[in-house]
Design goal:
single chain; 110 residues; mainly alpha; DNA-binding transcriptional regulator, MerR family; DNA-binding transcription factor activity; DNA-bd_dom_put_sf; 4 helices; DNA-binding; 3-stranded antiparallel β-sheet
């Protein structure tokens, strides 16, 4: 799972977010209702519009729940107790994965 954040884009629709994470929009809505760190704006129609910060938080939730196997309650506790520390580790992991991908691309070109 990897979503590219555009520097020009301020909001992402729930459909875009669900597609990027390869999950149903209903899961994103559920996570939004369960996790206080998600604060999407709602347009006039009531549709959720996610900010880049929300996307980063969704990546963290996805990582904890889907990749590391945390329960929702476990993920909530983990986020509340060490959000900054967890986010820093998460960012390091994502950067290393990106570097690994780039190195593999270079290797394949040799």
């Amino acid at each position: 799972m990897h979503i590219e954040l555009s520097k020009d884009k301020r909001y992402y629709s729930i459909g875009e977010v669900a597609k990027a994470f390869n999950v149903n929009a209903s899961l994103i809505r559920f996570w939004d209702s369960e996790f206080d760190i998600l604060k999407p704006k709602k347009n006039a129609k009531g549709n959720r519009m996610f900010t880049p910060e929300d996307i980063t938080n969704l990546q963290l939730i996805y990582h904890l729940v889907k990749e590391r196997g945390f329960t929702l309650e476990g993920a909530k506790i983990h986020l509340k107790e060490g959000q900054k520390k967890t986010l820093d580790k998460f960012e390091i992991i994502r950067k290393l994965e990106s570097i690994k991908t780039q190195l593999n691309e270079i290797k394949n070109e040799l």
